[in-house]
Amino acid sequence: QVQLVESGGGLVQAGGSLTLSCTASGLRYDGYAMGWFRQAPGKEREGVSCIRWNGASTYYADSVKGRFTISRDNAKNTLYPQMNSLKPEDTAMYYCAASYGGCSGVAGSFGFWGQGTQVTVSS
């Protein structure tokens, strides 16, 4: 059974930083692209970032470029999105996802999802 478990969310002031993590089990982790998505109340799920299985290429939404970075440790089956210079508009539930294909910001390309971790940025 595939499980993706996110952690590291919380409340942070605008301008602050958070490092999330997502640990995967039940799949061959180094065969999957890993992505992060977010969904704010009343809004559609948005692709935030993605990293290919070998880290060779990454995707970032325009809204987070220059502020967020993503990395992975295949030995630990863990994904590490680093979020800097956070803004109130970054407030959302953040989800980890796995795709056997390449990287993209399209939710339909990802077959496995975590339960999410809440990030709240206060102004």
Principal-axes geometry comes out as: globular
User: Could you describe the largest sheet, including whether it forms a barrel?
Assistant: 7 strands, mixed
Uncertain regions: pLDDT < 50 for 5+ in a row?
A: none
Rg calculated over all Cα atoms: 13 Å
Task: Tally the helices.
Answer: 0
Strand content: over 45%
Oligomer: single chain
> Which class best fits the helix and strand makeup?
mainly beta
> How many individual β-strands?
12
**In angstroms, what separates the terminal alpha carbons?**
40 Å
What is the mean pLDDT? 93
Give the helices and strands as they follow along the chain.
EEEEEEEEEEEE
What percent of residues adopt helix (DSSP H or I)? under 10%
Describe the structure.
Helix content is about 0%, strand content about 50%. It has strands at about 5, 10-15, 20, 20-25, 35-40, 45-50, 60, 70-75, 80-85, 90-100, 110-115, 115-120. A hairpin with a 6-residue loop joins strand 6 (about 45-50) and strand 7. The chain is globular. The N and C termini lie far apart (about 40 Å).
Short description:
By secondary structure, the protein is mostly beta strands. The chain has strands spanning 3-7, 10-13, 18-19, 21-25, 33-39, 46-51, 58-60, 68-73, 78-83, 92-99, 112-113, 117-122. The protein has no helices and twelve strands.
Per-chain topology:
Elements: E1 3-7, E2 10-13, E3 18-19, E4 21-25, E5 33-39, E6 46-51, E7 58-60, E8 68-73, E9 78-83, E10 92-99, E11 112-113, E12 117-122
Parallel strand pairs: 2-12
Antiparallel strand pairs: 1-4, 3-9, 4-9, 5-6, 5-10, 6-7, 8-9, 10-11, 10-12
